[in-house]
Specification:
This protein is α/β, with parallel strands linked by helices. The protein contains 12 helices and 14 strands. It folds into 3 domains: about 150 residues, Rossmann fold (3-Layer(aba) Sandwich), CATH 3.40.50; about 140 residues, Argininosuccinate synthetase, chain A, domain 2 (Alpha-Beta Complex), CATH 3.90.1260; about 25 residues, no CATH class. Strand 8 and strand 9 form a beta hairpin.
Length: about 400
């Protein structure tokens, strides 16, 4: 018999799985269930979750628009670090979990709840991300993870439970998608179905946000992104909030076939997993941020950031957003961004993002008078290079002489 819980806050999407979890918590724990639904830009209406929760007897329902907070306080700080997990994954799912975990804990405190609950399975990374975040923010919080407790471990058993308890099973036109999908302002992910065979190419019909690169416009699209302290503040001269920047870049990037990825990644729990992702805005943002840093960051600062990035990305992937080491790295990264100001011009064409120009009127370290192949009027004495080379070659020459006897 489970330990007594009087009140639990459930991360509730309004979908079949979390509706089953809602009912299961009511029956198994005989407790009050409070639902929390976050709009972080998944592109679907979240208000219908209210009616579904009410139909299942929920009296306290939290539905919140967190798009700006998500973009400003989570996505943008991550892109200051140029974070990329295992060289490919832009961390779209990973970066959303600490925000949801934080609000679950805050709502639990506001309502006097004993526990929080989520719908992540016992095989995935999300259970780790939700729970590490929750424990970091409220050490004594109790977490109920139904997928680790119940015996409803197949789609057939879930559907039978739903039918038995009168939980509506929505059938979308054209049939149910064979993929497990997760979406927010940064990306949409796909797992399951034929993707469980890493040899199988994804079906073209799977992709939701992006035009196939071969079907994208025949003429390139140029955009200009203005940066202030490492963050995009305007697109094509129009000031925008962080969430609007991402919405705009998702639209423009999607139209040009930008942001598709097919990845086999190493999950924190130990298994390999194949997933496909559409991240138009993120793909554009990463390219542009590296471009503006290329002319505004000191060489050694840039190289140090590059060394720290894999560690930072792994911390986010594994669920350690709220850890002291991630916060320490963030302070270092943010300190480096005070000079990252200027404009980047990008050329988008049939799935590719190319830098077409970058400039910074106030913080550029690129000096044409020194870098030029033409006469530099004495700005750089090329004869100095001889001593520089010989000093750096000293150990190599000593080693070569020793090997030659």
């Amino acid at each position: 018999m489970p330990k007594q819980i009087d009140r639990v806050v459930l991360a509730y999407s309004g979908g079949l799985d979390t509706s089953i979890i809602l009912k299961w918590l009511q029956d198994e724990y005989r407790c009050e269930v409070i639902t929390f639904t976050a709009d972080i830009g998944q592109g679907e209406e979240v208000e219908p979750a209210r009616a579904k929760a009410q139909a299942l007897g929920v009296e306290r329902i939290f539905i919140e628009d967190l798009r700006e907070e998500f973009a400003r306080d989570y996505v943008f700080p991550m892109f200051r670090a140029n974070a990329l997990y295992e060289g490919e994954y832009l961390l779209g799912t990973s970066i959303a979990r600490p925000l949801i975990a934080r609000r679950l804990v805050e709502i639990a405190e506001e309502t006097g709840a004993d526990a929080i609950s989520h719908g992540a399975t016992g095989k995935g990374n999300d259970q780790v991300r939700f729970e590490l975040g929750a424990y970091a923010l409220k050490p004594d919080i109790r977490v109920v993870a139904p997928w680790r407790e119940w015996e409803l471990n197949s789609r057939e058993k879930l559907l039978a439970y739903a039918e038995r308890h009168g939980i509506p099973i929505e059938q979308k036109r054209g049939g149910r998608s064979p993929y497990s999908m997760d979406a927010n302002l940064l990306h949409i992910s796909y797992e399951g179905g034929i993707l469980e065979d890493p040899w199988q190419e994804p079906e073209e019909s799977m992709w939701r946000w992006t035009t196939a690169p071969e079907q994208a416009p025949g003429d390139p699209t140029y955009i200009e992104l203005e940066y202030r302290n490492g963050d995009i503040v305007a697109v094509d001269g129009e000031p925008m909030t962080p969430a609007r920047v991402m919405e705009t870049l998702n639209r423009i990037g999607g139209e040009n076939g930008i942001g598709r990825a097919d990845i086999v990644e190493n999950r924190y729990v130990g298994m390999k997993s194949r997933g496909c992702y559409e991240t138009p805005a993120g793909t554009i943002m990463l390219k542009a941020h590296r471009a503006i840093e290329s002319i505004t960051l000191d060489r050694e600062v840039a190289h140090l950031k590059e060394e720290l990035m894999p560690r930072y990305a792994t911390l986010i992937y594994n669920g350690y957003w709220w850890s002291p080491e991630r916060k320490m790295l963030q302070e270092m990264i943010d300190a480096s961004q005070s000079s990252v100001n200027g404009t980047v011009r990008l050329k988008l064409y049939k799935g590719s993002v190319m830098v077409a120009g970058r400039r910074s009127d106030s913080d550029s370290l690129f000096d044409p008078a020194i870098a030029t192949f033409e006469e530099d009027q004495g700005a750089y004495d090329q004869q100095d290079a001889e001593g520089f080379i010989k000093l750096n070659a000293l150990r190599l020459r000593i080693g070569a002489r020793q090997r030659r006897g």
